[in-house]
Amino acid sequence: MYNKFSPESIENYAKKLIGKTFKDAVGEKDIKGKGGLGVLLEEHYFGYKPNSDKEPDFKEAGVELKSTPYKKNKNSTYSAKERLVLNIINYMKDYEGDFEQSGFYKKNKLILLIYYFFDKELDKLDYPINYVHLFEFPEVDLEIIKRDWETIVNKIKEGKAHEISEADTIYLSACTKGANKECVREQPFSNIVAKQRAFSLKP
Q1: Which domain does 118 fall in, by range?
Q2: What is the CATH number of the domain that holds 16?
Q3: Half-sphere exposure (Cβ direction) of 74: Cα atoms closer than 13 Å
Q4: How far does CA 119 lie from the centroid of its chain?
Q5: d(CA 192, CA 86)
Q6: CA 84 to chain centre
Q7: Are 195 and 89 in contact (CB under 8 A)?
């Protein structure tokens, strides 16, 4: 297994996934329901129960786990298949304090990225895992992400959470998150409910 207090130990254990399919990693499991493939790895490879805590997944090591697909493009290059969703925005809390003390930064400061190859011809359990890396935002990118975070948070402070748009920012976006338009949340400085959104990285 791995040392739950050591990011390097967690990364080394995760790197054993490279070259394996999800079936290789966790066996025949039911992938229906919330989280899908990521939940499989959390429960059956890393051995912890998925949760919606504000703490990182490996809280003792301060590491957040994110598994995400990439695809092959028509011109034979590769790209992310979808945005990387990080965590739900809590309008009632996330405006408090500065970026370094924010729930977003504490949860996502250090991310264990697991990339698997999306192939529509394959069963999900047969997707191959090809890349594992312990990731920190480079300083130059982090400055942009910080400004994006401040743009989002300032709209909350202005009572305009319902006006937040992904077009407002460069790297870090506030994507809508929920089954339908009825997924809304209260905001602290307005009586107008706002769409549920999550911090995410644009593809």
Answers
A1: 7-201
A2: 3.40.600.10
A3: 0
A4: 21
A5: 25
A6: 5
A7: no
Structural domain count of the chain: 1
Q: Is residue 1 part of a domain?
A: no
As a residue count, the chain comes to 203
CB of 46 closer than 8 Å to CB of 25? no
On whether residue 128 sits in a domain, the answer given is: yes
Residue 55, C-beta contacts closer than 8 angstroms, at least 6 positions apart:
106, 107
Cβ neighbours of residue 188 under 8 Å, at least 6 residues apart?
91, 92, 95, 156, 159
How many CB atoms neighbour CB 122 within 10 A? 12
Q: Residue-wise over 171-184: b if at least 16 C-beta within 10 A, else e?
A: bbbbbebeeeeeee
Q: Give the tens place of pLDDT for each residue, 120-131.
A: 999 999 999 999
Whether residue 2 lies inside any domain: the answer is no
Asked if residue 58 belongs to a domain, the reply is yes
pLDDT-flagged residues of the chain (< 70): 29-35, 51-53
- Kindly state the DSSP code that residue 161 receives in the 8-state scheme: G
- Dig out the tokens for 194 from the structure: 């706002």
pLDDT in tens, 45-83: 999 887 666 889 999 999 999 999 999 999 999 999 999
